[in-house]
Amino acid sequence: MIVTRQDRAVLRDLAHRIADAASLLEQAEKVRLWTACNDLQPERAMVLANPQGGWADIDEAWLRCECDPSLHWIEETLRRRLIQHEHIPDDQPIFATFNVPLQVTGAGYEDYGLALRTTRTDVPQGAYHIDPVITSEQDLERLHFRPLFIDFEATDRAVAFAEDLIGDILAVRRVGRMGWRYGLTRVLIHMRGLEQMMLDMYEQPALLHRLMGFLRDDYLRELDLFEREHAMELNNVPDHITGSGGLSPTQALPAPDYAGVVRPIDCICWAESQETVGVGPAQFDEFVLQYQLPLMRRFGLVDYGCCEQLDHKLDLLIAHIPNLRWLAVSSWSNRSLAAEKIGKRFVYVYKPWPTHVSAPSPAWDEAERDIRETLRIARGCAVHIVMKDTQTFHHDPERITRWATMATRIVREMA
What we know:
The protein is of the alpha/beta class. It has one domain (5-413): TIM Barrel (Alpha-Beta Barrel). Helices cover 43% and strands 13% of the residues. The strands form four sheets. A seven-stranded parallel beta sheet has the order 1-13-12-11-10-9-8, with helices on both faces. Strand 4 (117-120) and strand 5 (128-131) form a beta hairpin. The chain is globular, with a radius of gyration of 22 Å.
């Protein structure tokens, strides 16, 4: 495509601003602190403010695209990185790079042979109802593995295009797959329904085992494909999120025999099962963990948990997951129990209540007390403080700025 002189000037100006920000000494210091924390030698707690759904309010206030819509995939990426640097004063560094991810089709869970169905409201990011597509054991015969395809040629064209625009300012890189999430029950409930999944543990355990075995094998097949095609990227890097938690830099990876070709053993994976938060340890082990373990065992380090409470599963997870490094501590977890179990062996990834900043009226005093209390409880642990699941800021994006400013001030005071 032809890029106008004006559009080229806009993109190059954004790239120059990112390069200038990346040259600041604070970026290297942030990386050093994240690495020390992830290597279980923390100097202080680390803070990440991940707007997630709240980006809609941020974009509304601060993101003004000026280029042709066909260039927005570059322009929005650059502008959002500058917004994070200028408006969200947490511990996220900025780098003089522009990553172009592999273009992959079929990697979602839209095509398993049965079209997964949901009924949605007209509220953006609102609730939805799952319409189960597997209602009998006969339906399992219609399932097939996802039709994955890695389009290297399209990816290389996108890399060349970006290099022509800004490659002399930022290091344009084609990056392989970095994120490996194994929340098998998330897919399961879209096939079977949440209530029915719970009943299946009692009424149709064989069907549930077949479904979980199918999902495990599908994800193993995906992993084999990316490894075979040399399409994996090291993800122990400071511009990658471990999963539910903070940033990923660690000296524990890649594996000692790494020779330049990335394998699962050189990378971090993330697993969770928020849908089974109310399931006891024995059933969780039988129906979920045993199907996640073959995937997690392939990786060098593991991050486990998201928004689910893990109190009654911590012993099980710690005993059985090899190379476990990060454990999620949700807002409704027993923080003292988590600190006792996690100790100095793992990273304590705490997620404060998002309602402190996303409710119609923010609760700043409660938010500060919550962080201070958590840091007292987890004293001696390597801690990430991660604000996420903020689906709205009610058209007031300065809320995430205020929270990040407050959280970074507190962790420095209590270091």
